[in-house]
Amino acid sequence: MAHIDFGGTIEEVITSEEFPLEKAKEVLGDETVAVLGYGVQGPGQALNMRDNGINVVVGQRKGTQSWDKAVGDGFIPGDTLFPLETAAQKGTVVQFLLSDAGQVATWPQIKACLNEGDALYFSHGFSITYKDQTDIVPPQNVDVILVAPKGSGRTVRTNFLDGSGINSSFAILQDFTGRARERALALGIAIGSGYLFPTTFQNEVYSDLTGERGVLMGCLAGVMEAQYNILRKHGHTPSEAFNETVEELTQSLIRLVAENGMDWMFSNCSTTAQRGALDWAPKFRDAVVPVFDELYERVKSGVETKRVLEANSAPDYREKLQKELDVIKNSEMWRAGAAVRALRPENR
Ligand SMILES: NC(=O)c1ccc[n+]([C@@H]2O[C@H](COP(=O)([O-])OP(=O)(O)OC[C@H]3O[C@@H](n4cnc5c(N)ncnc54)[C@H](OP(=O)(O)O)[C@@H]3O)[C@@H](O)[C@H]2O)c1
User: Fold this and answer.
1) Which pLDDT score, from 0 to 100, does residue 261 have?
2) Ligand 1 centroid distance, CA of 345 (Å)
3) Looking at ligand 1, which residue's alpha carbon is closest to its atom 7?
4) Residue 123 CB–ligand 1 contact under 6 Å
5) Which of 7, 95, 329, 338 shows the greatest Cβ crowding within 10 Å of its Cβ?
6) Which pLDDT score, from 0 to 100, does residue 312 have?
7) What is the pLDDT of residue 317?
8) Is any atom of ligand 1 closer than 6 Å to the C-beta of 254?
9) Atom 28 in ligand 1: residue holding the nearest Cα
10) Which of 114, 128, 122 is nearest to 85 (CA)?
11) Cα 149–126–67 angle (5° rounding)?
12) Residue 339: what pLDDT?
């Protein structure tokens, strides 16, 4: 493990220098890793591990698009692709990568498939932290570990293919075998993590739910919409409003921020932009603090979890979600966005 100074706080991290792939293969040499669920994370993690020489089987309910996707990705029914329970029985590491609502629905069957000494693996602290609502309480005789990539399953795969990686947090809830930590780190390296940093199941889920409701998705979408609407209200064209709100961000600024940080961005824009951004950043920060406070409290108290489980357990949840998603897709702003993207030279 290495110790890195993150802005004055020393934290532990693990990279493939401290924990090489060869060591991960050694640790997982006698294991069968059963990846349950072939949605978004399932494919990313399963394919990376398979390419890294780990013995992987996939568990997925039959007759679904996800099953067909697994077949398309080279998993062979009856050999490396099975119904959920069969895969869970074969696995000595059972990666529970169903949707969080799906985990609640299938837990009684999956629990029955766990053998003494198995490792039960999560990529989210959700099911364990909110056990009062999920009823997911693992038996005492298994390891319970977490590796949570800090990115979409799609980039877990695409970053692996282009030679980079997605950073992941890891946590140990139960160490029955005495091997829980080395198993977690081996799996974290085998799925292609950039670096691994320690957390707890609780901190993982609190930060993750806050992040996706906040800056990563909810806040970002809300702030973009607010600025676009103000520009439109004052007579700017959709093309101008979209370019000034989204296209310039995604095609230029955020790439520079990714490479160099926001501090560098402040130092490398026009002095006009600099003066304005320096003045306005604190106003925006202070305006959203109460919203973030409310958000964190609702995450911590489990109110957000209750909402997710209720909404996503309804039989018609996909249709209902789709209706809401269609409203965004059909809005002027995102239709304007489609037109702007189509005009990019590479898309013309
Ligand atoms: N999305 C991400 O990139 C991401 C990032 C970090 C961590 N995670 C975590 O990784 C885990 C998996 O997330 P995900 O986004 O990959 O999930 P997802 O795409 O929503 O997963 C759907 C999977 O769950 C199965 N499923 C759902 N309900 C089921 C049920 N009642 N019975 C049986 N199977 C059911 C689906 O099967 P069908 O196709 O048959 O419905 C599919 O295989 C979660 O804990 C999530 O929080 C996800």
Assistant:
1) 98
2) 36
3) 123
4) yes
5) 95
6) 84
7) 85
8) no
9) 102
10) 114
11) 65
12) 98
pLDDT per residue over 315-332, tens digit each?
888 899 999 999 999 999
Going by their DSSP bridges, the two strands 56-59 and 81-82 should be labelled as parallel
Using a 6 Å cutoff on CB, does residue 192 contact ligand 1?
no
Of 178, 130, 169, give the one whose Cα is nearest residue 302: 130
* Beta bridge mates, 169: 148, 197
Among 166, 145, 61, 165, which residue's Cα sits nearest to residue 106?
A: 61
3-state DSSP call for residue 166?
strand
Residue appearing with tokens 């965004």: 328
Q: What is the pLDDT of residues 93-107, one digit of tens each?
A: 999 999 998 999 999
DSSP structure string for 181-242: HHHHHHHHHHTTEEEEEE--HHHHHHHHHHHHHTTTTHHHHHHHHHHHHHHHHTT--HHHHH
Pairing label, strands 9-13, 33-36:
unpaired
- pTM (2 d.p.): 0.93
Ligand 1 midpoint to CA 23 (Å): 29
Q: How far apart are the first and last CA of the chain?
A: 48
Q: Is 59 in the pocket of ligand 1 (CB under 6 A)?
A: no
For the cut 80, the answer to whether the pLDDT of residue 1 exceeds it is no
Q: Is 3 annotated as catalytic? A: no
Phi–psi pair at 138, nearest 5 degrees: -65, 150
- Å from CA of 204 to ligand 1 middle: 17
pLDDT (tens digit per residue) in 119-178 = 999 999 999 999 999 999 999 999 999 999 999 999 999 999 999 999 999 999 999 999
Residue bearing tokens 């698009």? 65
Between CA 189 and CA 185 the distance in angstroms is 6
**How far lies 76's CA from each of 28, 69, 239, 297, in Å?**
21, 11, 48, 45
